[in-house]
Structure formats: structure tokens, C-alpha cells
């Protein structure tokens, strides 16, 4: 078997490493990532590796997805792709700076190529670098810079000029190759660029940075397996924030006005026109948009009211994947991850560390030997099930204890949302008071706690997936949490009768869960009493730095500092938050997400942000990366701020979320040929809300048309990939 993991590269730059799945040839990762890419990226490569503790990890195979392939699947690609063999001659990266000219007159013409420098070349030597030189081929002749091998550098500077007599007719191609020189063994190929001489004759001269391409792919000699993946490229232009203000204000006004009789609500339009494929995406955009506007509680309350106005049964309430259900689920994931880790973390860690055998299904029980040396005996099936019940009941009891004690630790915004839901369902079903408890647990247990218990890696509770034994224990524990969340354990027992040994613990857990929900959704007065009982039970976050923050009167600008100008404020930076207040005991008025958003916007609009940098260090009298001797000179490599992981994406960027909602509404209202049925006569005027929506979308479409750059002219110098 193997211990496989994946590495994802964007244009040969490693961005992602998945968890290792141990001892299997059929691994499951189930990991999802969202990347912000530079507009000019070329390809995404996924390498499947075999982890080895004693030697270098082996490469099993790779899958390469080009930008053109993604353009052919605007709705995204989903399926199996065969792994191809990794050829060292194909593993190239970087760019080369060239100046190519045609000199002389008819009958005596020369082809001159100046090789200036290269950057970000592949590292082929054990010292983490290469010894690059260039080789040029034209019309059967070869020249190379063997006297100018740049030792131990991936950012070489050659500044060499090569000349060839131009053939008549000049139909040949110029090939510029980069190689890594080795004292022993064959030289390693680092990439090449191929030019058309005909295009060069028309241009006369061409200079610039050109991407290095690999040699032609070799056919795979044997089956290396397949990789199942889903990839979707969203290529959109995000306009300046002021362009989206009318759309944001319209949506906020709809939420503030609430549900009104006879009104065609825009939220209803979004709910009825979202398909199962895009509903999750629309829900996340709406939640983040209203979180940034401070209206997420009102937005969720409006969704609850609209959902409860439909014909529904109390026992199936919020069990479908409606916009209300998806929005509440997204809201919990965006705002409640620290709370989730606080509640589930200790129990999950205990399950991973103990690795106990837990199985209640008689059809899957494994009989094993027990006892000490010389006194071995075979356990009976009943003994295995009883021992498993004790282990599972211990885990469930510990988890329920953590949940019951966690009411004061639950974020106030989540408690307020559940309080609204509890009250709305109670008013809608006054004869079924049990329904309001089930409505809360359907989100908290079935859509939040239980999925995290089943796959803790996907909720950042663990760095790696569980092995087979631990995974089965987590699955049974997640089922138990679901049964407790259903508030009717007998119904779950009817489906899987082998869970009956756990029934007493489930009944006790249901009663405890009911008491917990009562405390969680208590009134504002109850909330104040609970907060007086104590803070979250976990240790306080470690303080990185704190002290006085003095904002100058004339320098305090922006919404964060306008009120603070000229005052002494106490700031505190911890591992979870950054904020300031009038005193050390005052509540922080700004959360970490708002600070990150402000910092990102400042950096993005700063014209003094570096465009290049030195990836090495200045040691002695030169840079270790490119061997330049000018310490203050321009960097030899580009900064890669355009490729970022989710960790540094703006968590509450209303501009991006507004653009995604505009793209969706544009298709809903006919921009993509989709018709909308309105609950009004065909000859009647449009409702005011819809007419305003059409006007706002029309203005945004005009802004996008004006923002589209003109098509660049076709290049005279044709670069070929062979």
C-alpha cells in the first residue's frame, strides 16, 4: 500500500498540501480550497505523493488542468482524471528575459538573441538551487554559454548575446533552452522557449519575459490510477466598491423593512430562483454581506419568517436544503468555528488518542482474543458490543457535558439568531411546543456538531484524517448526536435496531439537550444573568501585545479611527482578536475580521507595494539568490500577493460578495436567458422593489461594460509551445 497525499501547484508554485491518508491505495480526502489567482495564470497541477519517513517522498503521478480546459467548463469540471507519469524534463518553471532582433539588410541578415536573466527556475541540485546555463538552436546550429554557468542560483543573470546567420528563406524556429549543469551525470533540463522567425521579421525586435515550457510529454507506460476532483474557475471583474452601493443598500432596505403582505420580496426571488447547485454559494454570499453590514440577525429572521409562511409540518421543519437552511448553516460555519472547537475539541482529541475499538452492529463486530499471556480466550459478540457501548457512552457523555456547559461560551450573535428561530417556530406551531426545540437542534446538532464529529479534518479540528477504526468510532458518535438532536431517540432506533443498547443514554441526552436549548435561547434578562455566571470555560487567549494607542488628531481617518482621534485608547492583540477600548476592561469594539479587512484594503490600494523582491539573503557582498552586488537594487523575482489561501482572503469583503450576488441576479432576471414568473398580471406594472432591482442591475451592467479593457493587438512575435 501507500501513504498518499496531494500537492497542488499553481504554475509550478506549491500552494496546498493535503493531509496524508495512511496505508491505502484508495484514499479519500474530501478537502476544499478557494484560491485567489493572478489573472495570467496558466495551469493547476495536482501531484499525488507517497509519504516516506525514511527517504524522499515518491511521486505516484500527477494531473494537469490548464486554463483553457477550465474555460471549456464554465460550470466547473467534476469527474475522474487519469494520473500521468511525472517526467523530470516536464517539471519546469520560471521565466527568461530575452531580447531578439533581426539585423542587416537583404542578403546579409543576422539573428541576434540577447539572453539577459531568468527567475524562479526549478531547483535540481541537492543544495536547493541549480547551476543554469543557456543553449540556443537555430537552423541546425547550436550555441551555449558553458563558460557562463551561474553557480547555485535560480535567478541567474547572463547578459550574453548570441548571433546566427539568418537562413533564406527564414522558415526555421529559434529555440532557447535553459539547462542545469552537473559535474557528474547528465545535465538537467530547466525549460525552453520557441520563437517563429516569420513573426520576428515583421516586428524587427522583441523584448520581454517569456515563460519556460517543458519538452513534449511522454506517453504513460502503465496505469497509475485516477484522481477524482471538482474544479471551478470564477473569472470575474470586481468593480470599485461604490459601484455596488445601490445594490447593497437595496438589499439592506429589503431586510430592514421585513416581511410585508402582498409584497414581492427580493429575498423570496433569490430563494425561488436558486438551484441546488448554487444555493450554498448564494447563501454564503448573503450571510457575509449582511455580516459586514451588521444586519445578519435581521436577514436570518426574515428568512425564518418567509420559510414558516409556507405550508410545512413541524416534524420536517428546516430539514430541506432551502435558502433559509443553507444560510443558517453558513452563518454557523462563518461565526461559530471557535465555539465549535471549544466544545468538540477535547472529546475528538480523546477519540484519536485512545483508538479504542467501538462497534454496535452485530454484522460488523470483529471477535478477538483477550487476556494475558497463556490465558487467552475469545471474546463473545455480546462482550464486544457491551464494551463498545461503554466506550461510546463515555464519549457521548463527555460531549454532552461540554455542550450543556457551553451556553455562556456561545457567541452572542449565534444565541440571538437561535432565540429568534425559537420564538418564530413557537408562534407558528403553538400546539407543538416540541417543534421549536427541534428547529434549534436541527441546525446546531444535525448541521453543525454532527458533521464536525464525523469528519473533524474538514472543520480544522484535526490536521489529518482518521484511520479506519477511529473513523468508525466518530461515525457512531455522530449518529448518537443526530439522535439526540432529533429529540426522539425511539424513531432512530426503529431504523437501526442495533443502536438499542445506547437508548438509555440517548434518552438522558435528549432531556439534557432540551435544558441546554432553554438556557441558550433565554431572554435578554436571562442572558445577562448567564454572563454574570462566568466567561467561557476555556483558557483566555494568549496576549501577544497590549498597551496605549494614541491616534493623532490630524491623522485619524476612516471609520475605525475617526472616533478615536486625539484620545488615548487601550489596544490588545491576542491570538484571536485585535481591538481597542477606553480601558483594559472595556469590550473591544472591532473584531479580528474587521481589522483584517481594513488592512487588506490599505495594502491593496497602496501604490508603494513592492512589485519585486529578493527571495534570498544579502550575505557578504551579494544576494544569495541572483548574486547581485547592489543591496538596494530591484528584486530578482516578482511578489506573489495575487496567490493567497483562504487564511488571508478578506472574510467580510462586501464588494466581492456583492459582485457574486450581481452575477447570480443577472442570470435570474434574464441576463442569461432565464425567465422569472411574477405573482402579478402580465399587464400590471412591476412592483417597486423589482423595478428598482432591474434599474440597479442595469447600472451595474453598464459599469462592467465600461470597465472591460480593450482587446490587445495580436503580437508580432509568435511564441510557440511544442
What does this structure look like?
Residues 278-486 form the Ras-GAP domain. By secondary structure, this protein is α+β, with helices and mostly antiparallel strands. Among the domains are: 4-87 and 226-231, Immunoglobulin-like; 95-211, C2 domain (Immunoglobulin-like, Sandwich), CATH 2.60.40; 336-362 and 380-525, GTPase Activation - p120gap, domain 1 (GTPase Activation - p120GAP, domain 1, Orthogonal Bundle), CATH 1.10.506; 543-590, no CATH class. The strands form 8 sheets. The chain has a 5-stranded antiparallel sheet. The chain has a 4-stranded antiparallel sheet with strand order 2-1-3-4. Strands 10-7-6-13 form a 4-stranded antiparallel sheet, covered by helices on one side. A hairpin with a 2-residue loop joins strand 6 and strand 7 (108-119). Helix 9 (381-405) runs parallel beside helix 14 (503-520). Residues 524-539, 553-566, 642-649 and 671-682 have low confidence and may be disordered.
